Amino acid sequence: MKVLKRLLLFLILACLLGGAYYIVFETDWLKVRTINYNPNDALDIYELQRYSGIHYGDSMFTLDLAHSEATLMTHPYIRTAKITRTFPAEIDVEIVYREHFLSIQYSDIILSLDNTLQVLKVMDEVEEGYTVVGMPFNAFSTGKVIEVDAFYVLENIVSLVDLLKQTDLDVDNIITYEDNNIYINIQSLKVNFGDGEHIESRFNKFINIYQSLTTEDIRTGIIDVSSDGLPVYRPFGE
């Protein structure tokens, strides 16, 4: 009798295990049928599957979500990604995207950078917004931070652009890098920020002298805030 009970118990367990195996691996009930994510022009569902390694029809049990999040964040436009699964067959992906912040152009190469100076893409023409010209770069790869000798200056340019966006100044979109100096143009006024160190202080000095000049209807010349000393205004030709 005990032998029969054990045999019966074994058969029941075998059936349960076999049924579970069939449900998990042979049917679509516990396989990915739905992938939800916040879409973006830079990422379609096919790229999402390719970068994450999660595809329709994959077993819900065999997914390595941490690995999928890490590989998804190698996409140039993805800053962070969080993946969750909801049984029986749903995957949810929450993505924080990188955004174009400024362009950098050297020779005939134009790159789109985000505010951490990661390269988003190579462009045929500059996008709307600010463009840095005259700064050579050593190497670049989409999805990685651009390599330039004067990297700290480029970081200072990012801070400068942040400050400019907080104003209503009619600033030309071209930011010029020349001899380790940062230049912007406001109509016929040229402003030299030097290497951009202590940029907030230099920017405030620029604003003060610019407002003084405009009250006197002076709209041409050079405003020099390239040092941490007093700002200097010089008419063109002096």
TrEMBL record:
<keyword id="KW-0812">Transmembrane</keyword>
<keyword id="KW-0132">Cell division</keyword>
<dbReference type="InterPro" id="IPR050487">
    <property type="entry name" value="FtsQ_DivIB"/>
</dbReference>
<feature type="domain" description="POTRA">
    <location>
        <begin position="30"/>
        <end position="100"/>
    </location>
</feature>
<dbReference type="InterPro" id="IPR013685">
    <property type="entry name" value="POTRA_FtsQ_type"/>
</dbReference>
<dbReference type="InterPro" id="IPR034746">
    <property type="entry name" value="POTRA"/>
</dbReference>
<keyword id="KW-1133">Transmembrane helix</keyword>
<keyword id="KW-0131">Cell cycle</keyword>
<protein>
    <submittedName>
        <fullName>FtsQ-type POTRA domain-containing protein</fullName>
    </submittedName>
</protein>
<dbReference type="Pfam" id="PF08478">
    <property type="entry name" value="POTRA_1"/>
</dbReference>
<keyword id="KW-0472">Membrane</keyword>
<keyword id="KW-1003">Cell membrane</keyword>
